[in-house]
Amino acid sequence: MTRSRRRLRATGIAAATFVLVLAAAWFVGRAPAGQSPLARLGTEDVHALAFVGDDPEHLLFGHHGGILESVDGGRSWQPLPTQADAMAMAPASDGSIVIAGHEVFTASRDGGATWQDIPTDLPSLDIHGFARDPADPGRMWALLATGGLWESRDGGVRWEQVRSDNILFPVATTDDGRAQLYGLDVSGLATSIDGGRTWAPLATPPAYPITSFTATADGGTLLIGAPDGIYRSDDRGGSWRKLPFIGSAFAVAMSAGAREIAVVTKETQFFRSHDGGETWPGSGAVP
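-> structure tokens emitted (287 positions)
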């Protein structure tokens, strides 16, 4: 081999090594420092997750077989006395909890100790999306599997269809006394300020498929979960950035101040961030 060829070969090896080092550094930099789960919930599926009131240590997790409750920030979980399919779940500041799901529409008025079905005139109880007004828990919206978005102003007894097309993942917020809805239609993320009757498009993050969606009570911060992580907006859906969380986000929840974020993955691992999603420390003891 000539000297020039040896020099070219050495240069090529060095360049390839440099590229590999850069790639390794980039990959290592992508993994959040200290990300580890606090718990594994061990359910057959993942439906809903929510903080309860202003207590960042109190959470509820909904799945096909009922609700799990944590009062220590997600470190330990106990089942509430219900086996209803909690496909959608909405706790309110008055201590009430409403569950909506496959042929399920039931409520607890005492924090989950006892449950009663809600008498309703909905044409179907196969409810695939559900939201409550944070300022008025008696005002509700339901997405039916048979189609359309429905609104109730009396705690779920009487309903009116406000949209014939579907709005997936409906989320209700309240700002300055005005209810504002968010959800997904065929064009992407959208919002409504008239109870779901008309909708305006917003920026949609590059997340597909979207697996979960939540917002602070005032609508100032939105979170979208996807198989590749979590996307956050701090301008009511005007722009988005991807949080440094690695993993699927099949259920997400956020505290009132948007600092505490909780996630349950497809594998039912529970993660918790105390700084708005920038770091995800945990016990590290969960396999």
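Confidence is low (pLDDT under 50) at residues 1-32.
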